[in-house]
Design brief:
By secondary structure, the protein is an alpha/beta fold. It contains ten helices and ten strands. The strands form two sheets. Strands 1, 2, 3, 4, 5, 6 and 7 form a seven-stranded mixed sheet that branches. Strands 8-9-10 form a three-stranded mixed sheet. Bound molecules: guanosine-5'-triphosphate (GTP) and magnesium ion.
Length: 299
């Protein structure tokens, strides 16, 4: 038996979580068009034959602006430290930035084998334009392989597992062969709600929200399984609370309806979802709140 641990790294919004979901074949990590969607390391597990692939989806690398960001950056660093190889996910439509340079420095320090994936090639009509991009990236690091891909259009995505296979090492599988993630249903439900906030709200508000599941219990109603879920959306300001709730509660209702659909699919039961909104001023800089609500993996 073999296993291979792969850190999926790159700038925010490059498509790391989309890729992780595609490779494990299930949606385990939330996706949005806003940068800084992922906040925690999330293991995506794929067992294929004798090899177990463990993809560590990481938060997009950023310059930390608050305590929450610092935890996010730290989680990328620790992910890169002890893996068999890494994926550097780049957005082919964007120029090389300080993010790629910084990640490459930590790869070099650790001697990490890295596969460069140039994502979103579907947005480039003239494929000739890829050549200079590949040349620029090749100057950054001695990548094991460089693969232009599109997660969205499934271009070249079948080349990724074969490229990772050679980094597998002999050893027991770390996770049961039939799971796609070791994250709890409770965590995944909170993430689904956060995703719907990202989808429905503008810029700064979703980044200042977190979701805490206060109640998660199951019961039977006749032959039907029902899950009762009570979740609190934490936000930073009274004015944000008003906007999340919306006129006549419309926005919160929309978030709830979208989330409930996905949660029902995840759990395979009917879901009774109750959503509340609470204000915790400037919580992203308050270590006690980050730890009270377990909003980071390392507190
Ligand atoms: N056009 C195009 N869009 C893509 C592709 N892959 C992902 N996206 C989109 O890019 C956006 C970001 O995707 P995510 O998977 O959330 O990106 P991420 O790297 O995990 O982002 P963070 O968690 O913020 O670091 C979403 O709107 C995706 O639908 C692709 O191949 N082509
Ligand atoms: Mg992500």
């Amino acid at each position: 038996m073999k296993n291979v641990f792969i850190a999926v790294t790159g700038r925010p919004n490059a498509g790391k979580s989309s890729l992780t979901n595609l490779l494990v074949g299930e949606k385990i990590s939330i996706v949005s068009d806003k940068p800084q969607t992922t906040r925690n390391k999330i293991n995506g597990v794929l067992t294929k034959g004798e090899i177990q692939y463990v993809f560590i989806d990481t938060p997009g690398m950023i310059k930390a602006r608050n305590r929450l960001n610092e935890h996010m950056v730290k989680s990328v660093r620790t992910a890169v430290d002890d893996v068999d190889c890494a994926i550097l996910m780049a957005d082919v439509t964007r120029k090389i930035s300080a993010v790629e340079q910084e990640l490459v420095r930590s790869f070099a320090a650790n001697g990490t084998a890295v596969i460069l994936l140039l994502n979103k090639v579907d947005l480039i009509s003239d494929k000739e334009k890829l050549l200079p991009v590949i040349a620029q990236y090749s100057e950054l690091y001695d990548f094991e392989e460089v693969i232009p891909i599109s997660v969205k259009r499934r271009i070249n995505t079948d080349k990724i597992l074969p490229a990772l296979e050679k980094f597998a090492v002999e050893g027991e599988h770390f996770f049961p062969d039939d799971i796609a993630t070791d994250r709890t249903e409770r965590f995944l439900c909170a993430e689904i709600i956060r995703e719907k906030i990202l989808w429905t709200m503008q810029q700064e508000i979703p980044h200042g929200t977190a979701v805490d599941i206060e109640e998660f219990s199951s019961r039977k109603k006749g032959t039907e399984d029902i899950t009762d879920l009570r979740a609190v959306i934490i936000c930073e300001k009274d004015s944000h609370k008003g906007m999340i709730i919306g006129k006549g509660g419309e926005r919160l209702k929309q978030i709830g309806t979208l989330a409930r659909k996905d949660i029902e699919e995840l759990l395979g039961t009917k879901v009774n979802l109750q959503l509340f909104v609470k204000v915790k001023e400037d919580w992203r800089n308050r270590e006690n709140i980050i730890s009270e609500y377990k909003l980071s993996d390392d507190v």
